[in-house]
C-alpha cells in the first residue's frame, strides 16, 4: 500500500479552502517534505497558520501553476513523489470571466499531466468536481453519470478530469481523481466569488435578509472539508484507486431552503428569506452514489451536516474578518 510517510509532496491550491485542510491532514502523515504551490488568487496565508506552527519547514511557494516553465523549474529543483492538484478558479468567477477561467482550469491540469508524463514527479491526485456531472439525470449519481455540464466552470472541470484520464490511458501516468461534491467548513473563501454558506452567514451578521435564488428546492450533497481531505489522501494510499475517478460525498441531499433554515436557526435569525430570480445554469439536484468510495477506499463521511454546519457557523462568527467587509 503506498504510504505518504517519508515522501515529498506538493499541493497546488494549498492555501485555499480544501487545500489548507489537506495540508493539515498531510502533516499527520509525516512526509519528508511538504510544499504549497499557490498564486494567492483566492488563497490566504491565514489558512496555513496552524500548519506552519506544526511544520515550520512547510514550503509556501507563491507560484502561478499555469506558468509551465516556472513550475518545471520548481520540480527540477526538488524531488517530488506526489502532487495533489487542487488549484482552481471558482464557479462564480466563471460567470464573470468565462474564457479566462476555463482556460486557467484546463491549463492547471494539463501542465501537471505533462510534467508527470515527463517524470517530474511520480503520482498525480487530481481534484475534480461534481459540477462536471451537471444536474442529476438520476440519483444517486455514480461515476458513470453523464457529464452534462451547465457552466463554463463545470465544463472546464470536466475537461480537466478527462485530460488526466487520457494521460493515464495514453501515457500510463500514475494518477487518481477525486470528485468531491459540495464542500463546507471553516476557511471557505468568504470574500470575492464566495459560496452560499459564507454569503448567508455574512448577510445575517450584517442584519440583512438572506437571499435565495430560485425556489430554494435545488439540492446539493455536502461533505465537510476535513472529510474531503481524508478522501484525497486515501486515493493516494489505495492501489485499487489508481486510474480511477471516485466520488467524495456524503450521499445525502440538502436543499438550499434547508441550508437557509439551519443557518438562520444557528444564528437566531427569525425573519423569512427573500426569493430572487434563479441564477443562470444553476444545478437543480445533486446526490452522489458513495458506493465506489466505500468499496475501494473504505471511505464514508465522518462529519454530519448538522454537526458540520454548527462548526462552520461558529468558525465564521469567530473570524468575521474572513467575510467580505
Ligand atoms: N469548494 C467546493 O465546494 C468544491 C466542490 C467540489 C470540488 N471542488 C474542487 O476542490 C478544489 C479546491 O477548491 P476550493 O474550494 O478549496 O477552492 P479555493 O478557491 O478555496 O482554492 C483554490 C486555490 O487555488 C489557487 N489558485 C487559483 N489559480 C491558481 C494558479 N493559476 N496557480 C496556483 N494556484 C492557483 C487559489 O489561490 C486558491 O488558494 C478545486 O479543484 C475545486 O474545483 C471544490
Characterize the structure shown.
With about 325 residues, the chain is α/β, with parallel strands linked by helices. The protein has a domain at about 10-185 and about 225-250: NAD(P)-binding Rossmann-like Domain (Rossmann fold, 3-Layer(aba) Sandwich). The chain has helices spanning about 15-30, 50-55, 70-75, 90-95, 100-120, 150-170, 195-205, 225-235, 255-265, 290-295, 305-320, and strands at about 10, 35-40, 60, 80-85, 120-125, 175-180, 185, 210-215, 220, 225, 245-250, 255, 275. It has a seven-stranded parallel β-sheet, sandwiched between helices. α1 crosses α8 (about 225-235), α5 (about 100-120) packs parallel to α6 (about 150-170) and α7 runs parallel beside α9 (about 255-265). The longest helix has 21 residues, at about 100-120. The radius of gyration is 19 Å and the shape is globular.
